Amino acid sequence: xxxxxxxxxxxxxxxxxxxxxxxxxxxxxxxxxxxxxxxxxxxxxxxxxxxxxxxxxxxxxxxxxxxxxxxxxxxxxxxxxxxxxxxxxxxxxxxxxxxxxxxxxxxxxxxxxxxxxxxxxxxxxxxxxxxxxxxxxxxxxxxxxxxxxxxxxxxxxxxxxxxxxxxxxxxxxxxxxxxxxxxxxxxxxxxxxxxxxxxxxxxxxxxxxxxxxxxxxxxxxxxxxxxxxxxxxxxxxxxxxxxxxxxxxxxxxxxxxxxxxxxxxxxxxxxxxxxxxxxxxxxxxxxxxxxxxxxxxxxxxxxxxxxxxxxxxxxxxxxxxxxxxxxxxxxxxxxxxxxxxxxxxxxxxxxxxxxxxxxxxxxxxxxxxxxxxxxxxxxxxxxxxxxxxxxxxxxxxxxxxxxxxxxxxxxxxxxxxxxxxxxxxxxxxxxxxxxxxxxxxxxxxxxxxxxxxxx
Length: 455
Description:
The protein is of the alpha+beta class. It is built from 13 helices and 22 strands. It is globular.
C-alpha cells in the first residue's frame, strides 16, 4: 500500500515520545478537540491538515473494524460518498481535454430514454443543473442498493420520468442521477467499466494508489474500513450492507485522507487538468458543481471550497482554503455528519481562529422527561409538514420522525442538543411555566401540539 511520505512522518511523530509533533500546540489542540467526538462514538477515522503543500497534522482515531479490533491508520481506505463526484467530474474533464467529448454536448447520444435529452448538456450534469429526477428519492431505492448495478441500469431507473425543471436554469438539490449518467458517458467513451476508466484517467496518472471505485468487488480488499452507524446515545452498530455499485458515479469511490489531499493539491495547483478544464471547475455557476461547493466564508475571510459526503456507514468532508494554502480532510467510518463541523473547526484551530469545542452533558431522567412533546413543522421542513415527537427514557432523549426513524439527541446544554445522526442543532423553547412550546431544528421551528408520553 502506497503511503505519502510526509503523512508517514507525521504518524511516526505522534507515536514517538518527546517528538516535535507532541509538543506542537496546534497538534495538541486538534487532538484535544477531537477527543470528545471519539469518546462519544461520533467520530472514528483519519484527519489530515496540509499547509503549503506539506502535511502538518495527520492522526487516525478509533477502529476500522470494531469486531476484530483493527484500528484506523493513515493507510485505511474509506468510502467517501458524495466526494466521489470530484473524481467522476475529473474523469469527464480528462475526456474533454483529449477532445473525446465537449461540455456543450447534449446527452441524447448517450441516454435516449431521458426526457429533454436534446436539451441537457454534459455541463448541466456536472453542475447539477440538469433537472433529472433524483434516483435517491425513488420509492425502491433501498431495494436497488441490495443488488449489483451498472451505470446503464442506474440511468434506466429514471428513464421516462419528467424533468423537474428546465435544464440549466437552476440548482435544486444534489443530482445523484446526473452523476450516474456521467459514469455511463465515461464508460461509453472509453469502452471500459467505470472503475477501470477512472483508474486509467485519474487515479493512475495522479499517483492515487490507495484510491478506487467500489464495483462490489472490494469486500476483501486490504485496509478497507468497515462502516458503522449510531445506535442510541453512545452506541454503534454495523451499518446496513449495500452494493456500492448502486452509487456508481455519485458515491462509490474509496480513498485515504492522504490521497484526497494529493488530489486537491493536483487540482488547485493546476496539473490535474488542462487550464480550460480547471477554469470550468473554479468558476462553476452559483459556486456548485464538479463535486465542489464554493462560497465566500466570513469565518475564514476568503473564498473556500468544500464538499461533504454521507453514505451507509461513512461520512466525509474536505475543505480547501486557497488564500491560506490549507486543506483539511476528515474521513470517518461512522454514519454521522459530525465530519463537517469537525473539518471547519480543525481549519480554524490550524489558523489560530476561534472554535467551539464539543461538551456533551448527562441530564437526569427528570430533566429529560420535561422535554417530551409533539411538534408540528411547516411545508418547508426537511420532511414537509412533519410531526416530530420527542421521546424520553431514563438515559436519553430521542426524535421520532414520521417515517418511524428515531434519532438520539446528544445533550450539550439546558434544552440544547444535537441530532446524532444528522448533526443538526436542536433547541427546545419553553413558556413561563417551563412547558415546551416549540422545537427548533436547524433553521426550522415546529410548534408544540398534543403531548407525547415517554417510553
